[in-house]
């Protein structure tokens, strides 16, 4: 099962200047729950924004630079190579960024989407592709109001591929 995990704004914003543009502790907690114990595939820029391998997960970095290396991580030259490295895993998480998300969706490499939708629009330079509702069916949604820790209203939404 290959699951794409992303936090996006109402205008599909992902980030700006290689960083998140909001702070939602509830989303970070959910991300940890979804990815712990699994292989996480991410692009080089996403890895560099995090800065280190996350505990209790296998980090696979996709980079076209064959000399790029990060201690404690596995390296892949393409998204397909990263998936091949993880082929024996029950759950593979694709966690960003924009180019990796786009490749995964355009090449039909994903089985499910786990989306945090932040109910706000942000100025951004990285955007998530439109979710095609002809392909993806929403199967669950949890809505939350802003609180003292989470500044914006948000929803956790799960999608699965529609049957042909």
Question: What do these coordinates show?
Answer:
It catalyses: (6S)-5,6,7,8-tetrahydrofolate + NADP(+) = 7,8-dihydrofolate + NADPH + H(+). It is an enzyme of class 1 (oxidoreductase). Residues 1-161 form the DHFR domain. With 164 residues, the chain is an alpha/beta fold. The protein has a single domain (2-157), classed as Dihydrofolate Reductase, subunit A (3-Layer(aba) Sandwich), CATH 3.40.430. The protein contains four helices and ten strands. The strands form two sheets. An eight-stranded mixed β-sheet has the order 5-4-3-6-1-7-10-9, with helices on both faces. Strands 2-8 form a two-stranded antiparallel sheet.
Walk me through the topology.
Layout: E1 2-9, E2 13-15, H1 25-35, E3 39-43, H2 44-50, E4 58-62, E5 74-76, H3 79-85, E6 92-94, H4 98-106, E7 112-118, E8 126-127, E9 136-144, E10 154-161
Mind summarizing the main beta sheet?
Answer: 8 strands, mixed
Q: What is the 3D form?
A: globular
Could you please say which CATH topology applies here?
Answer: Dihydrofolate Reductase, subunit A
CATH class: Alpha Beta
* Mean of residue pLDDT values: 96
Q: Order of strands in the sheet with the most strands?
A: 5-4-3-6-1-7-10-9
Helix content: 10-25%
Strand content: 25-35%
